[in-house]
Write a structure and sequence with these properties.
The protein is α+β, with helices and mostly antiparallel strands. 50% of the residues lie in helices and 18% in strands. It contains 14 helices and 19 strands. Strand 11 and strand 12 form a beta hairpin. Helix 13 runs antiparallel to helix 14.
Length: 634
Amino acid sequence: MTQSASAIRRRGLSLEYKVPLLITFLLAAMLALSVGLAYNEVRKSTLLAANERIQRIANQLAELAQASATAQQETMREVAADADVHALLANADSATITDAAETLAGLRSSMDTILPIEVWRTPTGDVAYALPPFDGQTGARSAEPAVLPDSGGYGPIHEIDGRTFYWSAAPIKEGDETVGYIAQLRRIGTTAGADEIEDLVGPRAAIYFLNATDGPWTSLEGEVIDAPATGVGAGPVDYTGGDGTRYTGYAAPIAGTPWLLLVELPLDAVLAPVSVFLQRLAMALFALILIGAAGAWLLSRGFIRPLKDLSFAAGAIAGGDYSRRVRVARGDEIGELGEAFNRMSAQVEEAHSDLQHQFMESQELADELEHANDQMQVVMADMEVAREDAEKASRAKSDFLATISHEIRTPINAIIGYTDLLLMELQGPLTADQKDHLERVRASGRHLVRLIDEVLDLARIESGQVQIDFQRGSSADAITNALSLLQPQAAEKSLTVEFEGADDGEIPYQGDPKRVEQIIVNMLANAVKFTDTGGRVTITRNLHRGTESSNASDPPTLFITVEDTGIGIPADKHEEIFEPFVQAETGYTRGHGGAGLGLAISRKFARIMGGDLTVQSAEGRGSTFTLRLPAAPS
């Protein structure tokens, strides 16, 4: 007998551990899902804001560079129009050269005192005159620029001895005819200007000039930078550097030049606030899980520990120790069970003692044993009641889930409320970016509240606490209200949404108007979500009064049908989509988001109200969801 009891105890983990572990696991899974959703939304918002800021800065700096390039070209065109420069092409005597050199020297700046300024007869670099550097050195020289014969312009950036240069050229004209060019080799970059611009852009940001096609990258100081292996064109930039660092940025074209201006930031710098947010949120949720686990443990201990004591005492009595008793310190049913068990133990002990002392009085002892057996049957019945109470305790997880959902919803509603107050600008005006960020916070909060509402509805249904207000409802009002909620989403996807038979008169139903409208909203939301842009969604209603093959006395039934031209549902998924939390890789809800609760809750509400929710669909051919409800009497 003792060995059998020990074998039973070794079969599995005790309920004292199973119940708190299960509750803790469900709580952790729900909170982990919440953290994942919140992290994805904050990460998307942060990346979008950073990319918009980088693009705005790149365009502004490109406009400044364009303005500088335009001013430089105007100065060169003024010098090209000077008579001394024209005379230099016709007659390069000493006097002409001296006058032209003074005019050309006006193009020099503090950065290019040793760089050449040349007068060309042709755009290919046939030099008629070259202004020597101030210090008498020869100066840098490179390939001729690619300029238009009649308009001048800027050549591509190229490298000379570890520095970056470019040619700037302006045409020398006689009337409408181009007779030559002024060409100046200029250096890119200035340390003072670069420091000021990088301070404006922000820490860890980098700014580069580069050709629109290929060639070297150069910093604002004019230093050559190793370009990434992948090519970079105008627009958004996303690449991995040679050291493995991920970069995001924007390359803006500089009008009038063959150059791009690139502003970039390391991706880890952009996402640093997101990582801090995730760490803080994870710490808070970890603390919440610990609190929930402690509460589950205390709750389980209060129910299971007395049953364990009773089990050990029963095992001891089965092994022959009739003096074992159960400690009774409760006034509930478990306490009554303990008292009954102690009475049984005392009676068994007394019967055993009488059997030893009154062996000869076998008949009387047999009667007493029979009486003791009857009492044992009563105790066994009480133990069965205790087992049913233990099963009720396992259902406490649903009540606990509902309570936690309420507690989480309260701070989220507070966040949404404060966001609404900020958007009302009671504390002062907001910028467009601030309004955009607050709108995203509010949308994320409302999305999370909807998920919590679905979890709360499911918990109420499973715990039997859902309340249905049966009354006469208007099917037209329910459909119209649901359409008004989903119309903006349908308009964003250019979907055609029609309510056929809207003017066919009223068809009332018997049920809870709030739950009926919730079911229709879920049906329409699925249709809009899984229908591609330009598709069609149709909602109809009709009253079924029975056929010749049906019982004419059966009450009439209202059918509300939502038909779409979306992606459809495979036949083997028709029942699976009505299960809670359907999230398989090939599942119906996986590729388009959602918690997988809407259809499950809708079918449960429909069946509670005496109806049902069904689907007819084929993959790639759209879906038809039908809500069946009892029709109200005329």
